[in-house]
Predict the 3D structure of the following.
Amino acid sequence: MGIPIAAMSLPVAIMILLMLVIILTLAVFLIATIVELFKINRGLSTVIGAVGEIVAKSAPVNGVVDAINGNLVKGRDLLENLFIKKAGDDAGGLVESLFPGEGAKFLQRVGRRGPVVNTGIVYTRGVDILASLGRGAPIGAAHAKGPAVRDPKYATTAASMLYPRPGGDPKARPKSPVVGTDSPRQYESATTPGLRPRNRDGSDAPPPPPAPEMPTGRVESRQAEPEAAPPPPSGGGADAPPPQSGGGDDAPPADSPGRLNVKGSRPWER
Amino acid sequence: MSSNFWLWLMNIILVISIPLLFIMVKGVLMAAKSIVPRIEAIAGVGAAISKDLDAVVVLLTTQNYISQIVGSVADYGGSLDIALPDA
């Protein structure tokens, strides 16, 4: 260049030095930035490849999902139409009994209107099934005729029509007896405990039965029975058991004591 | 004013502008460096998504099954239509 440094003035030399510093600084940082931009470029190339794979793999999803939804909607419509055909006006109530709060939505979706009566409140699910299947039963017949038997407003009426008076006429029922100290006196007071002189209607009471003999624990001789025991029925024939004693007389001897055992005499067990 | 005055004034402006230039250029470099790890993270996530979408092919089998199930339901509904009386 031909300009000697010694010939420059001091301000010019400082200016040139500052210019060099600025240029070097810009060069260093701009080169580093370029290197980083190259790295970014390589990363974006990798990302674009992955995004391309995602787009390619998810492309048929819409068609497949739409086809699945279409098939499911067809199946739902089929079952709903069958349900409406079989359940009729009770369809909303049945849905309400199984899924509370969904009965009205179901009717709205299928384009029907009407009150939604929860059939599960009136009858249990088993009764509903029996009513639907067994049309011969009274409840089934009522169900077949109309929804009144399932309507809670008319449920009691339907039951009373089937069974008008389960307890009979209330006027014909006897009154409850009066008990306690204020109860009416029905019998004449007895002088002897256990003996009733008259009946409640005033007629003479029957004589008291003889007191049974109490066992004494001793062996006693008893008189013969005034009357023999009645013979066994003749229809027994050959099947009748043979008498234990000979002679054909079932009565024991007159002077025989009662049956003896370890507890003593038991004349009533002859 | 003499020419030296203007030269010294220019030198002062250059001295002041050097740190400002250094700060700004360094900021650009730092921003460029911060983009690189994010790009690498996005590339990893994209590869994972692409791998997860390999199961999308199974939807074709599901579609076939759904078609068969709906056909069976239709047959069952037809039988119920005959077996149960209408309301």
Summary: The CA atoms of residues 77 and 83 of chain B lie 10 Å apart.
